[in-house]
Batch of 2 targets.
Target 1
Amino acid sequence: MREIEAAVVEAPGAAFRIEMLALGAPGPDQILVAIRACGICHTDLIMRDGHLPVTFPSVFGHEGAGIVAAVGTDVQSVQPGDHVLISFHSCGRCGACHDHQPGYCVEFVPRNFLGVSGPDDGRLWRGGAPIGGEIFGQSAFATHALAHARNVVKIDRDLPLEILAPLGCGVQTGAGTVLETLNVQPGESVAVLGAGAVGLSAVMAAVIAKAGRIAVLDRHQHRLALASVLGATVVTDDLATLGDGFDHIIDTTGAVDLVAASIDKLALRGTLALVGAYPGDPRLALDLSAIMSMGRKIIGVVEGGIDPQRFIPRLIDHYRAGALPLEKLIRTYPFAAIAEAVAASESGAVVKPVLIMDNRSS
C-alpha cells in the first residue's frame, strides 16, 4: 500500500475534499503513475452530481498526466520514468476496439464509470475499506493513480504535462469529432455550439482541417473572443445570427432545445454531431421530414470517435507545430485549490482548469 492524497466526493452533489488514502500496488495490467497534472472536465462534475452511474464515495479525475512510478508484470509499453498522458479505458477485445473505436467499447460503462477492476488489480482504500476509484481507468484527482496499458500514452519528456493533460478527454473529443468522425474537408463549413474546452478544440481542429466558415455560439463573450483568436470566422450569442447552410454542426452544450433548433441550420446532406451530455428525455421534438428529405444525418460521438494511442500523438504533432495552442485555454491551480478550480469551471470563467500535483519527491 502507498499513502496518497486524493480528492474524495462522499455523496452525490458533495464537495471535493482532499484526504489521505491508501493505494494498492499495480496489478498485472496496471501502471502506477505519479500524477503531475489533471484537467477538470465537465464530465467530472456530472459524475460528482450523480448523473452518471458512478459509486460513492469516489475519486474522479480523468485527464491525468504524470510519470510512471511502477508497472505490473504484463505491462511492456512503458517503464518507470516514462512521461505519460492518461485517457479512457476499454477492453481491447470487442469489435469496436478492433476497429480502433474504443469509445464505443462494449465495456465502456463498467470500465469508465463503475470502477470495475480485476481480482488482482490494486485499488483505493480508506480506513481499511475500499473506496470508489478506477474512474475512466485512472481516478487522477490524486497524487498517484493506477492506470492501464490500454489507456496510457507515452510522450516525450520535453513536453509540458500541465498543458497536454486535457488531450486525454476534452481536447481529443472536440478535435477528434472534426478530424476523424466528421472528417471535415477543406472549404466545408462548421458550426460549433458551445465554446468550452471541447468546442474550442473543435474550432482549432477545423482550422487544421482548412474548413471555410467556422461559426461559434456561446453565451460568454470572453469565450467568443477566444474563439475568434483561435480561428472562428463568426461568433455570436444568438442562434438566429449564427448563419445557416452548415455542412457540419457540432453540439457540445447538451441543451436539447438548442439542438432541435439547430437542425434547420444544416445544409443539404449536412451532419449534426452530438457531443454533449444529454438528459434521458424522449420528448425531444424533431422535424423528421426536414432530416429525411434533405439527406441530413445526426450522429452521436464519444471521445471524438478516436483511438487515443493513434490520435493523441497526432495532436501532439499539431501542438508542436503551433496549430493547437492549448495554453490559451488553460489556467493552472494547485491541487489544494480544487474547490476554486471547480468553481471557475462551473461559472464559465475558465475554459480548462488544470490541477497541479506537487509530488516531485515521489
Target 2
Amino acid sequence: MNSRRHHTQIIKTEAKRLGFLSCGISKAEFLEEEAPRLEKWLKQNRHGEMAYMENHFDKRLDPTKLVEGSKSVISLLLNYYPSKEQNPDSYKVSKYAFGTDYHFVIKDKLKSLLHFIQEEIGEVSGRAFVDSAPVLDKAWAAKSGLGWMGKHSNLLTQQVGSFYFIAELIVDLELEYDTPVTDHCGTCTACIDACPTEAIVEPYVVDGSKCISYFTIELKNEIPSEFKGKFDDWMFGCDVCQDVCPWNRFSKSHSEPLFDPHPELLSMSKSDWEEITEDVFKKLFKKSAVKRTKFSGLQRNVDFLKY
C-alpha cells in the first residue's frame, strides 16, 4: 500500500474514533466554480450587514493563501441532531444551539486529530477551522464527497440528511482525494416553499439578508417591520428548511453529551422567555452559541415575536 493511501486510511479511521460522522479529503486548490458564485452573491448584497463576508475574498477561495504550503483539505462532519425537542408552546431555538457551543467541542476534536496525524505520520503542519475563518466549509465538504449542496444551500447526504456541523483541517500533506457525489434534490421544492421569509430566492441561492437566522443572530439593528408575523416563533436561528427536507427523515440522534441541552431550555414556555432575566440567560446559555446574540438581542427577538 502506498504511503498516501495508508495515511488517508488512518486519518479517516481516527476521525471516526473521535466521533465524526464522516471524513472526506480534497486537494487544496483554488475553488474555480465557487468564485463567480460568491462574487455574484456579494454584488447582489445577499449578505446584508455581514460585512465580514466581503473580507479575504482570495483566501476564501484558495486555501493555499490561508495555510502556506497546504496540500489537502480534510473535511469533517459532526452530528448535532437532538433526541429531545423543546416544549411546543415555546419560542424556538435552532437545534444546533441546544448544547455547548460547537466551536469549542469541534476545535478540541480537530486538535486531537491533528496531533494524531503528527504522531503517526511525522512533521505535518496544518490549521483547524470551524466556520470562524474565511473557509467555504460547504463547498469543501461537497468537493470531498461528503454530500451535495441542497436547494436550501445546506450540505445534504442521503444517509443522514443535514443536521451536522462542518469543519476542516488544512494540512501540508498529500493524501488520496475523494470525488463529489451527485445531487439528489430532484424536483423537490419543499425547502423553497416552506421558508417563512422567502429567503431561498431561487434553487441553491439563499438571500442571507432575508433569512430568519440572519435577523435573529447577525443583525444588530432593529428587525424590519415588514417581517412581522413571518418568523414562525423562531427566536434564535431557524431550522424550517431543514425540518421539511425529506432527507432529514434519516437524521439520527447525536451521541455527543456536550450537545445535550440544559434541561430548563426544553421546558421553558413562551411566557418564561418573555420574562427571562439576565441571570437565567447566563445560566441557560453559559457555554452556548446563543451567547452570540447577547441577552439584549434575545430580548429584542422575543419582543418582535410577541406582538
